[in-house]
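Support reply, case 0932

Customer input (verbatim):
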Amino acid sequence: MASWKIEGCTVADAPALARNNMSAFWEDPTWILLWPKEITREFLIKQGEKRYPRLLLRDREVTRHQKAVDPATGALVGYARWILPAGRSTAADGSPEWASAQAPDVGDDERRRFEELAESAWWNGRKEMRHIDDKNDVVMDRILSEKSYIKLDYLAVHPENKGKGVATALVQSGIRHAEEIGLPIFVMSYKAGRGVYERLGFKEVERVIQDDTEYGGKGEYGTYFMIYDHGASNPT
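Our regenerated output:
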């Protein structure tokens, strides 16, 4: 199994991130229901390329971005986005917490250009799908209000690289940092990712199972709310 390099992301990664992330979620049977049938994966990748520079720069104070890189080719093979809790974004010396995973800032002119580029992207999902995550949001907001967590907000591995330890390497990197600063990790997992989290010591604390047939799905849309607590004898 390859040993993947875990690095921070920059705005130059936008095209590779769009291809990785849109390809990964294109495999999800509920996620693809968000889009009209005529929309293709390649079209969404092109729209993602326009949106990602702004996404990487948004909420820089608390948001951290990591990519997994093939050391032999330099290719981006996976991505994780983490959200630090309020009040924990600055290290003891006044520097940004987890600075290696904070996307480098850009000048005002570039920010405006990236804003315009993102606004030019098409990103209009099916209106009838807008409320499919309402129940999930209620559960997630409740759990996050109970305690301070590092939130694993997004994890994506291109289908060509699944089963090669990419997701594990990304999550382990977050675990190491969470243990360094003494915080647990929260993630809302989909069915495809549960195995990775369980093997790394995450515990399921709640789940929401919905019927997505009314949207054209295959029946089950499951979300699994999981926590890694370094103080609870979790393996790493």
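We compared this against your earlier run and they match. Two observations from our side: The mean pLDDT is 94. The chain is about 35% helix and 20% strand. Please reopen the case if you see a mismatch on your end.
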